[in-house]
Amino acid sequence: MKIDTIENRMCLGDSDNDGWCDTIDPCPYTPGVNCPESDIDHDGIPDDEDDCPNDPGTSYYNGCPAPGEKDTDGDGVIDTYDHCPNQAGPASNNGCPLPENCLCKDREDVKKLLSDLGVQEDLIQQEEDLIEEKRGELSNAINDYTEAESEYKEYWHCPISDYDIVGLLSAAISWLVEGTAEGGIMGLLLFKCYDISKPMDSLNKARLKVDELTGVVEHHEGILKWRIELKEDLILQIKERCPCACP
After folding, report:
1. In the chain, which ranges are continuous DSSP H helix?
2. How many Å apart are CA 61 and CA 47, to the nearest integer?
3. 235/242 Cα distance (integer angstroms)
4. What's the CATH number for 103-245?
5. Quick one: CA torsion of 202, 207, 209, 212, rounded to 10 degrees?
6. Global pTM value
7. Distances 234 to 46, 101, 103, 110, 125 between C-alpha atoms, Å
8. Taking the CA of residue 122 as centre, how many other CA atoms within 13 Å lie in the half-sphere pointing to its CB?
9. Domain range annotation of the chain
10. CB under 8 Å to 223, separation ≥6 — which residues?
């Protein structure tokens, strides 16, 4: 739709028919107020604002890579740390291509390290699964504790007065001597306010369960952290002895 402005009424030409005169349209042959942005290196900085349109960079350096962070071979290892800056390779091999035949992988010491690494990875997975299971149990235990605490408070806040005690005794006597149902019911209702042993017992058990599961979760989180450290140490040893064998 053409935009009706004084300038447009005086237009001598609007090649893309977008309502903007060719004389003021930055892209006279492309409809729209602005030109489509081009970003060849996909770094989020338009090419017309990018000092290095073919190399991904940051806005801080006007679209150019930070000094010392160029990655010529595009393998994810910047040239500063890449032992083979013109040949793509994994970081585990310092940016160099892996040899077709990783001979050192068959050495006994390397095979032992790889075996130990596999064991640690399995144990880490087991710990993660166990922690997830125990966290679920802990969540349920916390809910049970909240319910037990609410029930305990309900009993605890039951009003007590001398009149209530007299009423309780009267109801008990009425039940025992006269055998009236009314006295028995009154006695039971009043006695409910004073019998807090059950909710207190439930609350204590729920608290102990929460404490127990909290301890279990924290214990296994400590084991998991330790096993992850062992795994990282094994990977470092493998990198030192046989980089091409490192996962």
Report:
1. 6-9, 108-156, 162-173, 181-194, 197-241
2. 14
3. 10
4. 1.10.287
5. -160
6. 0.47
7. 44, 22, 19, 10, 17
8. 6
9. 103-245
10. 127
